[in-house]
Description:
Mean pLDDT: 95
Helix content: 40-55%
Oligomer: single chain
Number of helices: 15
Amino acid sequence: MTQALSDGITKMVDEYTIRQQKLVDDNRYFYLQPTVGPTNHTVMMADGREMIQLASYSYLGLIGHPRINEAAKAAIDEYGAGAGGVRLLTGTTLLHEEMEATIAAYAHREDACVYASGYVTNIAIVTALTGPKDLIIMDKLDHASIVDGALLSGAKWRTYRHNDMAHLEKLLSQAREKDEAETILVIADSVFSMDGDVVDLPEVSRLCKKYDARLMIDEAHSVGSLGKTGHGIEEHFDMYGAIDLKMGTLSKAIPSIGGYLAGDRDLIQYMRHYSRPFIFSAALPPAQTAAAAEAFRVIEDEPERVTKLHEITAYYSEGLKAQGWNTMDSTTCVVPVLVGDEGVAMDLTRELFDSGIFVCPIVHPAVPRGMDRLRTTIMATHTKEDIDKALAAFQAAGTKLGLI
C-alpha cells in the first residue's frame, strides 16, 4: 500500500514538473516572481526592473505607511517577535484584545476574533458552526476556502449559480419543504475575487430572512475598497446589520496577515472556545497584530484613499473597455481581462511583463477552462500616469496578438 501511494505521488509530481518545465521553456512561467522592498503602485523586481504593479491586493496602498510601520516596530520593542502560544493559553496580549475591539468597531459589531489567515478563518467558521444536521448553500464562485470548509464540516452542501437569486431561492425553498436541515447557512463572497463583481446583498439578505437561514459574507476583497469610506459591503448597500457572520482578512487592504470573524459577543466567545483553528493555532505575532489595528485607524483617518481608489479604478476600467477588452461584470478594483484561452493569457502576460507591467495570468483550475484571463487589481496609490502607461501596454499587446 505504501509503495502504491508513493507511486501515485511520484506520478503527480512528475506530471506537474513536466508541465512547469514546458512553461519555463516557452517563456510563459510568471509565478513566484521575487521582488525587493515594499510593493505599492510600482514594484522593484529582483533583477532590478521597476514595474507598475497591477496584481497586488493592497488596494489602499498602505504597505509601508509610516504609522503602520511605527506601530509594528513599537510592538516588537515592547512584546518581542512572537506571541509564545495559542490565544486560549499563553498567546493573548493586550495588543490582541485592542485589535479585536478595533475590528469590531470598524465592522459595526459587538466583538471579533482573529485567526492566522483568511483561509483558516473560513475553515474555522464553517466547521465550528455547521455539521451533519445542517445545510450549506454557496455561490458557485465562492472562494476555495469556503468550499473546503464545507467539505470538512460534514454538512450537506449545495451551490447556486453565480449571483442567480432565483436559483438560490429554489434551493432554500426545497430545503425548507423537505425539512432537511437544522441550520441553513448561506455563504457568498462580497466581491468575487476572480470576476470583480459584487454579491446581490439586498436580495440574498431578503431570501435568508424569508427562509430562516443564516447569512455569512466573506469580505476579503471589500474591506477598504467598497463603500464611501471603505467599510465594505454593508456600507456599499447602506444595509448595516444585514449579515449574521462577517468574515474579513488582514492581508489585502489591511497590510498584515490573518483573518477575522465579527459578530455578536456571545457568538464570538463561542468561536474562541470551539473553533479548532483558534484553539490550536499560535497567536498572531505582536508586530502583525499592531500593524493590523493601526491600519484600520488609518483608513478611518484617511478616507481620501478610498475616494481615490474608486476614481482611479473607474478611469482604468473605462480605458480597457474603450480598447475593446472584456472586463466581465466587474464594478470594483478587481478588474479581470477575459481572453478565454490559457496560451493567449500567457502570451498577453508576457507582452505586458516585457512592457513593465506586473500582471498575473489566471488559468484552469483557478477558473473553468475557457474562462482564462488576466486578473488585474487597482490601488489608491496608482497615478493617472501609471494607468496611462498600463493602458498603452494593453493596447500595443492586444494589437500585436490580434485580440482587439
